[in-house]
Structure formats: structure tokens, C-alpha cells
Protein: C2H2-type domain-containing protein
Organism: Diplogelasinospora grovesii
Amino acid sequence: MGNFHFECSCGKQFPAGWRARENHCKATGHIRPRWECDTCHRYFTSDTARWQHMEAVNHFAWECAICDETWPTEKARREHEAEEHHYCCDCDRTFTSYNNMKMHLNSSTHRGTKICCPFCSGKYATATGLVHHLESGSCAGAPNLNRDQIYRMVRSKDPSGMISKNLIGWTGSSTYEATDRAWNGSAWECYFCHRQFGQMNSLNQHLKSPTHQQALYHCPKASCRMEFKTLAAIINHFESETCGFTRFENVQNRVGDMIKGGKLIGF
């Protein structure tokens, strides 16, 4: 069952603590008892008994930064801190929700910019960032790509309609532009949502966005089936793991199949 002092394998006891015992072992070449608790003086006749003791009295080596729970590995401690406390130990930050914390962990702060645009030299932290870069027409290497072109590309690789909607008769996004009639006497007002803007240019930017366009994509999970107007939006939905359809890493690995190459889309 052990004793009240740290002990060497030679039988000598060290009431002063484990550091004195460690100094003794270094000086003599002796070793400490094989199955010793990670945090107290007790040692056992088997690893199973040692493990049962540490689990029963919360004596594992890795202690949570928020509560007094201990864990057998650093990975287990990190997972506990993230899932139970929404805490990032590297940044010493706590988040309001598990999803916010996960998005932080998947950001460039922790992952860097490892996803490369296949058409230019741009690098992005997530698949969402890459797809938004292409859909917005910002890629210098593919200036003709936009939301509609990306949808046609995805649709050609998704004949079963796993993520893309089969829009019979669809010929492209509608175009809208504000006129002087959009001025309501105090602001430029959107005809569709009645949102108000200080300048006509700002209203036109709003009208050129996908805000009032038809949804082109849907989540394939039967219990979700959320609809999305851009590929970036559904990719972000997948990356957040909100509905559990796929994992973040899987999205990063498959995004290339959606925008280049001849492979059909699959998860």
C-alpha cells in the first residue's frame, strides 16, 4: 500500500520529499519504485492498482488550468479544457461557447496559412477563406471566377446533388442596381429588406452580394438540410461541425476536389 514518505527501490525513505529522493537516485544510480503515483508518495504492486488509485483520488499528472480535475496526458487535459471550459491554454483565453473556441483553434493563429489557392500564390488558414477568395472574384489568377462560375463547377462534380441544388432552368444570379428612387428622404433603402445605407454605392454593394440571391447549396445531412447561397457559406457550416456531418480536417483535405481537378465531390 505504500508509506508516508517517498522511498527508493533500495528501501531508504525520504521524509523531506520527492526531490531528496531524486537526488539520492541520481547519486547512487538507484531507481524509484516502478508503479508510483504521479503526484503523491504512494506506490503499488501493479500498474492497474496505481491507475485505479490515481483515478479515484484525482492524482494524475496533468491538472486543468480552470478546475481541479487531473488527467493522464496533456492531450486529455487540453480536450477537457476545450470541451468543458471553452479554454485555449496556448493563448490563455476563454470563449463564450465551444464552437467559438473551436473556430479560434482552427484559425490562422494556430494553424497558419497552409491552404494554397490553385490559381494564384494566395494562402489561407481555412477552406472557407480560399473559397470566399474565389467566389468574390478576388483571385488575380482566375479573375473570371465568381459565385455563379463556382456553382457551375461544383454542380458538374456533384451530379447526385449531394451539396449542390439541382436548379432546373437556372441561368445565373439576378442582377440588381439602385436608382434615385431608392432614396427615401433620409437614406438609401434596399427594396427587398428595407436596410438603409448612407451612400448609393454602399446600397449597390449590398445588392451585388448574395444576400438576395437564390440558395445554391444545401447540407446533405437529413436532420439538418440547411440551405446556403454561397459555397463559402456551406464550407463554413461544415468546418464549424455544427451538425456533425463531417470533420474540419476532412473539409480542408477535400476542398481542392471542389474547385479543380476531375474528381467528383465526396466526403
